[in-house]
Amino acid sequence: MKPGASALRSSAARLTLWYLLILILGVGTLLGAVYWATERTLLVEVDRVVEAEHQALSENFDDGGVERLIMVLKRRSDDWGRLGAVYLLADAVGVRLAGNLSAWPQNVRHRDEWLEFELDAHEGGVPTPHAVRARVFALGEYQLLIGNDMSERQRLMARLRSAALWGSGLTTLLVALVGWWYSRRVAWRVRAVAEACETIISGDLSRRLPRNGSGDEFDQLTMTVNHMLDRVEHQTTVLRTTFGSAAHDLRTPLQRIRARLDSLLPGDDAAGSAALAATPLHEAVSDLDRIQRTLSTLLQIANAESGVAQQLQPLDLVQLAQELIELYAPVARTRHITLEAAGGAAVEITGNRQLLAQLLVNLLENALKYSPDGGRVVLRATRQGGHAVLEVSDQGRGIPAALRDAALLPFRRLESEPQVPGSGLGLSLVAAVVRLHGGRLQLHDNAPGLIVRCEFPAAAS
Fold first, then answer.
1. CATH number of the domain at 310-461, please?
2. Strand-pair category, 376-384 with 338-342
3. CATH fold of 13-157, please?
4. Fold of 202-309
5. Are the C-beta atoms of residues 307 and 204 closer than 8 Å to each other?
6. In the chain, what percentage of residues exceed pLDDT 90?
């Protein structure tokens, strides 16, 4: 995944983008409203000036007729330079009578009752276009055009528009920089918490989540989680000590009982041994052996789940698989089961050799136990991308898809095979070892049989 895409997946980055969009819309709406209100205010001001001029000139026309109006317009002929006022009085056919416009304007744009056009005014001997907003009024048989120069107001609106654009851009840039800093800060704190959690999950219960002393919601959450970890570490230590002491206390009397029962069993007399095989004494010895194996397996599962037995070192899964294939080859031959290893090049991982060997032992024993005579068991170690894959497949009855999750729990056995000896802890230990190494365990159908697939993070090449 690209770095940009992964950065956008964080909630802080997405929240920053949403805030940025909302701010842009808010600032844009505010500046747009100010711009529109300013423009409307200036237009209303111009319209009021024109209406006032019309009122004054209409009174002069009413008092003295067109001669007086022409005289007033001649006195106002210089109002263009001072006030930007535009006047033009024409008769019914459009002939100019008075005003500071030489002729009726061309290229006029109509806006309701208002006219908009441009005229060239000489400024320093250079003709300069000026925008004019005007209105035509009827005075008897005459037409009076009154207008006002809009150039200065247009320049004011252009400066306001430029200021709004620059303000919006700088505000957006500032918010984007602050949002980028905030998202990076949040991402750094989340990454530090995630790394600490990974260490805790791997078995280091003494690790605590980091704090920066700011007292914000992250620190408050960290304090609560650290307090919970203190309780968990204390309870785990108590349980581990109690379990270890109980296991040690049970192991010694079990071994003594086993030794006493062995002393009652006959020696190397084959006939005597055969006669004693079905007696309660022999069954008691078998039960003690099963209790000892169960207790040993439970200890291994507890150590794997807690991570206390984690002593990681580089190892080759292919080589480990070959060693165990050679160990179980005689057992497979007695039942005419083909036991083979598949795979070629070395598959390097970093793990606990003893636990991984116990994982393979459990998988091979299960595969040999449930495979029919003359069947085939394959142990395959390969590298697929960034994962080291270990698979053990057999040709037994397999496990139905609906029961595969339950089969990974302790003391869970299939009801269809109660006669097969076992404690139901084999796959539980496998699952615990896989979790300890940060891997993933999957059960698949081999049609017939079962495929147990273990994925581990592969060591760097």
1. 3.30.565.10
2. parallel
3. Beta-Lactamase (3.30.450)
4. Helix Hairpins (1.10.287)
5. yes
6. 4
